[in-house]
Design a protein that fits this description.
With 494 residues, the protein is an alpha/beta fold. It folds into 2 domains: 235 residues, P-loop containing nucleotide triphosphate hydrolases (Rossmann fold), CATH 3.40.50; 236 residues, Rossmann fold, CATH 3.40.50. It has 17 helices and 24 strands. The chain has a 6-stranded mixed sheet with strand order 6-9-10-3-11-12, sandwiched between helices. A 6-stranded mixed sheet has the order 18-21-22-15-23-24, sandwiched between helices. A 4-stranded antiparallel sheet has the order 2-1-4-5, covered by helices on one side. Helix 15 links the parallel strand 21 and strand 22. Helix 13 packs across helix 14. It is globular, with a radius of gyration of 24 Å.
């Protein structure tokens, strides 16, 4: 018996000024399946989903639901056709309760009077039926990112959505939260819901997905059954070539100790953290969400509120009270969230590249525009950044190219120690491979790297040593040969 196809998007094309975002793309979704949508940043995945969600109108093509042509000209049209999209950037109202968010736009009551008690009761029933473990009266701002995602899912279920799109749902949540998310997804598909799943994490495909469709350069490449394909085949389909050295790393003998940190604290987030970094090595930091990894690096970089501890650089005790001190001592920090903490999204590539090195091209209020341009061009070449020009607004670049610009900005300060917090989060496999190659090249130039990552294969394949943190403390150090996912998780879950 043929499985029921609940959605067909056929021959979809969409053009923006100067850009063919989608060209003759087709995909179908079956009831009760999880269908992965893969592709590099800029492949057209988001545009395709926005067409399905009524945010964009396709120039050509058609959409069928249950075999019938439908016109989706607005978000309301999508909702009326049982389509719900959970975007990577969550769109909940933080100062409203969970129940109010679940029923936002379709409040219960008569006229302008909302029956809050009825809403809370029904919202709680939905939450409990899905095993969310969330109180409907809680304000959204008081929930973790993972719990906020669960609210979005509950909102979709409460609207009787049969077609659910999830965009990078595991990019910012812990392993435990991922397990809970997958449990809920399996429950939904068991009740006939079809899920389109967008992710850059190849490891998740075998665990949760049935089929996978690959896009490249705005075009359909192919669809495969997950059980009948391999990671290498999918990567080749995505990037148009085989990535023979995905994790590019030459393990050379590290040099002398460059950084030594003893008893670093910034209560209550960081407690008595000690570690060291040698010349030409990558030191990884692992741990669950909330373990204190990012906070420890922020304290080291002079961003802590009540930092204590001893810092030695090249054997000399030093004090770092601010990011300015840190940069002067040869440290650079690429933060976890490039969009909220790192980039000036409305500014161009040149501005974002040179903002930390103004003293290199500004003298006595005079700007050496050629020098500024040369600095920018140098890092565009070094990072292999794909941009029409250095005057391109950075918010219009793909996530991988935004990350390259941000790393280039801090390399312009000529650091001895580069701290990378989740350097490949939310970027595609091709861009990840290029970031790894850049890291490998930096090591050969004598730069040392501290890397925080939630992707354990990335840490294991790229690090010389890994420190594992939990509850603001270092719980153990693993050397090459000792690094396994099991060893890391046994320390992280203490």
């Amino acid at each position: 018996m043929e499985e029921q196809v609940i959605l067909r998007m056929k021959h979809i094309s969409k053009t923006f000024p100067g850009v063919k975002a989608l060209q003759d793309v087709s995909i179908d979704l079956r009831a009760g399946e999880v269908h992965a949508l893969l592709g590099e940043n800029g492949a057209g995945k988001s545009t395709l989903i926005k067409v399905l969600g009524g945010i964009y109108h396709a120039d050509e093509g058609s959409i069928e639901i249950d075999g019938k042509d439908v016109r989706i000209g607005s978000v309301q049209d999508a909702e009326a056709n049982g389509i719900a999209i959970i975007h990577q950037e969550l769109v909940l109202v933080p100062y409203m309760s969970v129940a109010e968010n679940i029923f936002l736009g379709r409040e219960k009551g008569r006229g302008i009077s909302v029956n809050l008690a009825s809403q809370e009761k029904e919202a709680q029933q939905f939450l409990d039926s899905l095993g969310m473990g969330i109180n409907a009266r809680t304000l959204v701002k008081d929930l973790s990112i993972a719990k906020q995602q669960m609210v979005e899912i509950t909102k979709a279920v409460s609207s009787n959505a049969r077609i659910l799109v999830m965009d990078e749902p595991t990019s910012s949540i812990s392993e435990k939260d991922v397990e809970n998310l997958f449990r809920i997804m399996r429950d939904l598909t068991a009740h006939g819901v079809g899920i389109i799943y967008i992710s850059h994490k190849m490891s998740e495909l075998d665990e949760i997905c049935d089929r996978v469709t690959v896009m490249r350069d705005g075009q359909y490449v192919g669809t495969r059954n997950v059980k009948d394909t391999s990671r290498d085949e999918l990567i080749s389909m995505m990037v148009g070539r085989t990535l023979t050295n995905y994790y590019e790393r030459d393990f050379l003998e590290p040099g002398a100790e460059l950084l030594k940190v003893e008893h670093l604290s910034d209560e209550p987030r960081v407690r008595d953290v000690s570690f060291s970094v040698r010349e030409g090595e990558i030191v990884g930091f692992a741990g669950l969400v909330g373990a204190g990894r990012s906070e420890a690096m922020e304290a080291l970089f002079g961003l802590g509120k009540n930092t204590k501890g001893d810092i030695y650089i090249a054997g000399k005790k030093t004090a770092i009270h601010s990011p300015v001190d840190a940069v002067e001592k040869g440290l650079a920090l690429v933060p976890e969230s490039r969009k909220t903490e790192g980039l000036y999204l409305v500014q161009d590539v040149r501005y974002n590249t040179t903002i930390e090195v103004l003293d290199q091209f500004i003298r006595h209020l005079r700007v050496d525009a050629k020098k500024e341009s040369d600095i920018t061009e140098n890092f565009i070449r070094m990072m292999r950044t794909k941009t029409p020009s250095q005057h391109q607004v950075i918010g219009n670049l793909s996530g991988g190219n935004q990350q390259k610009v941000l790393i280039g900005r801090w390399l312009a300060t000529d650091p001895k120690i580069l701290i990378l917090d989740e350097p490949t989060r939310g970027i595609d496999v091709g861009a990840k491979s290029e970031i790894y190659a850049i890291m490998n090249g930096l090591l050969k130039r004598g730069v040392s790297i501290i890397m925080i990552s939630s992707e354990l294969p990335e840490l294991i394949n790229m690090s010389d040593r890994i420190y594992v943190m939990a509850e603001g403390e270092v719980r153990g150090e693993l050397k090459r040969g000792e690094m396994t996912q099991e060893a890391i998780m046994s320390l992280a879950a203490i």
